[in-house]
Backbone:
C-alpha cells in the first residue's frame, strides 16, 4: 500500500487510497472500517480494477483502518497488512448572527456550534471580504466571543475555524452583517437601577434581576432587533429594592433579542441570544 500512510494524522475527509499496481491481476478488493476488526465497514468494494480509489464519505476527526487484496480468475488473495489513519477537523458551523443580517447592534455576540476534536477556535472579524485586514482576531476555547463598540452603519465579515494539536480545520462559511445607524443595545449605566440579565446565551429561561435605588414605574419588554415586541414581563410601579423576573421563550425563533427596562428616569437595553 502507498497512501494514506500508516498512522497518519490530520487527513482530509476526501482521500484517494493508493496501492502498488500488479499487472497480472484482474482487480482489487478494498475495505475501510471504523475499527481494526473490520466489522464496521464504510467501504467494502471488490469491483476495483485500478490501483486507487477516491473516497469522499469519511467523517471528520475519526480513526479509520484499511486493507486491500488482489483478485485473479475469481480467486481472492491474502489481505494486505492493516494501515490506520485519522481524519482532521471539520468545518465550524456558525449559529449567530445569521448571514447577511441588517440593523445589528454595535455590541455583538458571535456564537457557533462545538466542533468535534477542536481544542480552540480562531475567530476573525473584518471589513474586507478577503480578510486582508482585521478588526478583531480572537483565539478562544469557548464557542462564542463578544465584540464591543463596532462602528455604526458598517458591513462586517466574520469566520471561525477549529484548532487542535495536529493542525486546524477549514474556515467556516463567511457570514456578513451590517450594524445599525442608531444607538447600540447594551447601555447599562444608570443612576437609579442596577440590572443583571442571565444566562446569555439562554435556552429555556432568561432571568432579569435588578435593584431599584428608589421606587419607580418599571416596564420590562423583550423585543426583536427591529423593535417588534415579543413579551412584556412587567409594567407596574415597584418599590425600592431587589426584584426578579423570569422570561420563558415560547414559540419564538432562535436568534438575538433585546431586553428593554424602562424606569421613570432611565432606559437600559441589553442584547441577549436565544439558542435552541
Residues:
Amino acid at each position: 500500500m502507498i497512501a494514506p500512510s500508516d498512522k497518519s494524522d490530520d487527513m482530509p475527509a476526501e482521500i484517494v487510497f493508493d496501492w502498488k499496481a500488479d499487472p497480472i491481476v484482474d482487480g482489487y478488493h478494498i475495505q475501510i472500517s471504523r475499527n481494526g476488526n473490520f466489522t464496521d465497514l464504510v467501504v467494502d468494494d471488490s469491483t476495483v480494477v485500478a490501483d486507487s480509489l477516491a473516497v469522499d464519505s469519511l467523517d471528520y476527526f475519526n480513526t479509520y483502518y484499511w486493507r486491500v487484496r488482489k483478485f485473479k480468475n475469481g480467486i481472492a488473495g491474502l489481505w494486505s497488512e492493516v494501515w490506520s489513519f485519522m481524519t482532521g477537523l471539520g468545518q465550524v458551523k456558525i449559529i449567530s448572527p445569521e448571514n447577511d443580517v441588517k440593523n445589528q447592534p454595535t455590541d455583538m455576540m458571535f456564537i457557533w456550534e462545538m466542533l468535534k476534536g477542536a481544542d480552540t477556535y480562531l475567530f476573525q472579524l473584518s471589513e474586507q471580504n478577503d480578510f486582508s485586514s482585521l478588526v478583531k482576531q480572537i483565539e478562544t476555547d469557548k464557542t462564542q466571543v463578544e465584540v464591543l463598540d463596532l462602528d455604526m452603519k458598517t458591513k462586517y465579515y466574520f469566520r471561525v475555524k477549529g484548532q487542535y494539536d495536529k493542525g486546524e480545520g477549514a474556515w467556516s462559511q463567511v457570514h456578513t452583517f451590517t450594524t445599525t445607524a442608531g444607538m447600540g443595545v447594551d447601555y447599562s449605566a444608570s443612576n437609579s437601577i442596577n440590572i443583571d440579565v442571565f444566562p446569555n446565551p439562554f435556552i429555556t429561561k432568561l432571568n432579569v434581576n435588578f435593584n431599584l435605588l428608589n421606587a419607580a414605574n418599571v416596564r420590562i419588554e423583550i423585543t426583536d432587533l427591529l423593535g417588534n415586541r415579543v413579551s412584556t414581563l412587567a409594567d407596574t410601579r415597584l418599590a425600592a429594592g431587589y426584584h426578579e423576573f423570569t422570561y420563558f421563550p415560547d414559540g419564538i425563533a432562535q436568534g438575538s433579542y433585546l431586553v428593554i427596562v424602562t424606569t421613570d428616569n432611565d432606559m437600559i437595553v441589553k442584547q441577549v441570544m436565544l439558542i435552541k
Q: What stands out?
A: Residues 193-274 form a domain with the Immunoglobulin-like fold (CATH 2.60.40.3080). Residues 183-189 have pLDDT under 50 and may be disordered. The longest strand covers residues 63-72.
